[in-house]
Design a protein that fits this description.
Order of helices and strands: EHEHEEHEHEH
CATH architecture: 3-Layer(aba) Sandwich
Strand content: 15-25%
Shape: globular
Number of strands: 6
CATH class: Alpha Beta
Radius of gyration: 15 Å
């Protein structure tokens, strides 16, 4: 079974988890990168990101060569912005008709996932959901343990 980890990350938390998952299950990685992005170190990123979510923006993404249609199993990850997935994922969801895939969802937050995973499932109907997991500040809260948890979770569901 061909596996792909698709993710967006601004602060690095989701990237960290995505890399742990990909390494654990031997998956390829597709990082979604918007053409315009705020400075990750600026406190204005919260205002910028929240506005994008509330306005239901779908930012233009930088070109990528990986075709998610070529994979059987997708791990899809996002940071939590305003209690939902990041706008880069909204763009990704409209780019291709993902149907009939095995999908595992994960998110990284500063304290609560809100309805992030449920909203992602709504956008990805027509697929088989094989797992979901959320992480709270994995780079700050026991980084090594979070990497182990992500790898164990991915191995457990990646073979289903």
């Amino acid at each position: 079974m061909k596996k792909l980890v698709v993710y967006y990350s601004l602060d690095g938390n989701t990237k960290f988890i995505a890399q742990a998952i990909a390494e654990a299950v031997g998956a390829d990685i597709l990082e979604l990168k918007p053409k315009k992005e705020p400075n990750a170190k600026s406190p204005m990123k919260y205002l910028w990101g929240g506005r994008q979510v509330l306005m239901k923006e779908k930012p233009e993404l930088k070109h990528f060569d990986t075709n998610p249609q070529d994979y059987d199993c997708l791990f899809i990850g996002t940071p939590v912005w305003a209690w939902t997935y990041a706008p880069a994922l909204a763009t990704f969801f409209t780019m291709g008709n993902l149907k009939g895939k095995k999908i595992a969802l994960f998110c990284c937050s500063g304290g609560g996932k809100g309805k992030t995973l449920e909203k992602m499932k709504e956008q990805l109907s027509g697929n088989e959901f094989i797992g979901e997991m959320d992480f709270v500040e994995p780079l700050k809260q026991d980084k090594e343990q979070n990497a182990v948890l992500a790898a164990q979770w991915a191995k457990q569901i990646g073979n289903s």
